[in-house]
Design a protein that fits this description.
Helix content is about 80%, strand content about 0%. By secondary structure, it is mostly helical.
Length: about 120
């Protein structure tokens, strides 16, 4: 469960940012930063927290370490129980978002710099 969010965030970053930059479909620095931030926020920050909720619920049910809700109010119970966790995870989620946006910006700048260089092997006269 610890590796799945990392792999999905890595594949999504390559699919939403690296590949479009390489193929020329993404040529706006602001768009690259926004996409990087969104990938970092959703797939690097929020997705792992939502993935952990059912795992923790399953462990609590298996080992009877927490009082579980009745059948009718399961969703409201997990939302109420998860609020302190979301508050504690706010800083790492924002850090992940900022880091992904920064990486998107750096990748865009490196691509622009690489496109301005002459091809290797060609002599300029």
């Amino acid at each position: 469960m610890a590796v799945i969010p990392f792999l999905i965030a890595d594949v999504s970053y390559k699919g939403f940012i690296s590949l479009p930059l390489s193929t020329g479909d993404l040529n706006c620095e602001t768009c690259t930063i926004t996409r990087g931030g969104l990938v970092g926020l959703v797939l690097g920050g929020i997705y792992p927290v939502f993935l952990a909720i059912p795992v923790n619920g399953g462990l609590a049910a298996r080992y009877a370490s927490a009082v579980l809700p009745e059948k009718g109010n399961i969703l409201t119970y997990w939302i109420r129980i998860s609020k302190p966790i979301f508050r504690k995870m706010l800083f790492p989620i924002l850090l992940q978002t900022g880091f992904a946006a920064y990486l998107g910006s750096r990748q865009y700048k490196l691509l622009i710099k690489a496109l301005q260089l002459p091809e290797p092997g060609l002599e300029i006269q």
